[in-house]
Amino acid sequence: MLNVSNISKSFHYKPVLKDISFSLSPGETLALLGRNGAGKSTLLRIIAKITSPEEGQAVFNGNNLFEGVATHRKGLYYCGHAPGLYPSLTASENLHYFSMLHSCKTNPNSINSVLKDYDLIDAIDEPVKVYSQGMMQRLKLSFLELIDWSLLLIDEPFNGLDISGQKFVMNKMESWQNGRRSIIFVDHDINRVLKISSRIMILDKHSIVLDDPISTSDLENKITSLMN
Amino acid sequence: MFITLLKKELFVELRNKEVILSMLAFGLTVLLIFSFSLSGNPKINHEMAPGLFWTLVVLSSSLGLHRLFGQEKDFDAFASLLSAPIDRGTLFLAKWISGFLFLFLIEILIVLPFFLFLGLSQPMSYFPGIGIVMLGNLGIVAVGVIVSGMAMRAKMSAVLLPVLLFPLLTPLLIACVKATTGWYHLIPFSNWQFWVLIMATYVVIFGLAGYVFFEHITEE
Hints:
The complex is a heterodimer.
Chain A: E1 2-11, E2 14-24, E3 29-34, H1 40-47, E4 55-60, E5 63-64, E6 76-79, H2 91-101, H3 108-117, H4 133-142, E7 151-155, H5 163-176, E8 182-186, H6 190-196, E9 199-204, E10 207-213, H7 219-227
Helix pairs in contact in A: 2-3
Chain B: H1 2-16, H2 18-37, H3 42-66, H4 70-74, H5 77-83, H6 88-117, H7 127-152, H8 157-184, H9 189-218
């Protein structure tokens, strides 16, 4: 599904990523761990073609993402730290607009039903700028119910959420693991990562220092020692 | 896709009126200052009118161009746009045309006060003037969207925008002033057609450059 090879990136001559290569198969949920500044978010932004790498390529469903052909990004959805929404538009307007950009047609009924499922129906006509962080996070994720995606890149999906919100997102992420869709997510909580991912990758000093499936023996200790 | 993007630009602006109101308020203030600082001699005002008009336009537009990506910047909606499977050249076109429409609307709103405050005589024909203004707007906004897209990611975008924008616009503004002078002072077209050609060349070059290079301009 996704083949990343030899990606390198620096900011202001300071290396952030060096020669990063990995593959992701359909159905895999890959957790990206690492200290602050390890390059996790940058890696996601490079794959989503928001940041350009200095070297390397990423092939998604057989198409090179860095060739500049927009349709090569079809099926890929990036969900960053920031809300990534238009603050003055309402939840339904944002969902409708971004669904259209992903070539998915929506109607008021489908949007209402998704917003109801994500417990946002009461704020449907409010501009997104008045939403709390948890509401915005739920709204970002609700978009995934409306578009046809196969690869989700999600940066710290549990950030700013209360316990019920975290549980809600965990359940959703588990429900999306249906064998066809793949997820790469950034997180800092080792216990949670062990619960919901099928594979764990740790970035340190600009490189991959661990890339193991969840079934690897003594993985928790390995992760803990590397993270410390 | 272009229509979807353009409709969203217009819809967001109609809801916020962020770009239009800031440009209009600024434009009217500058106009008021012009009318008080000039001698009041209609002949001198008539001579200076084309230059004053384009000064007004470029100062007002710089304010609007600074906020052209404001909505995308606030909640990083730009990341969602860039990662979506849409051609970035089309993104540029939507910004270009919406920016052009906002600027044209401002000009419609300030042109009457401009003639009234400066005591100017009505032009003999309107259509050539409208054509010059539209061409000038297309050039200003094309350069503006490129520079604004570049400056958006910078920490000092408020400083970077005018530093890059004004030198790039200078040749276009000279052509705009010369062409407007030719039209308003009833000089035969053959004497100022060269300036119209310069304006058209500017629009084509920066329009194409924006369409082709917006992909690279917008990436971090």
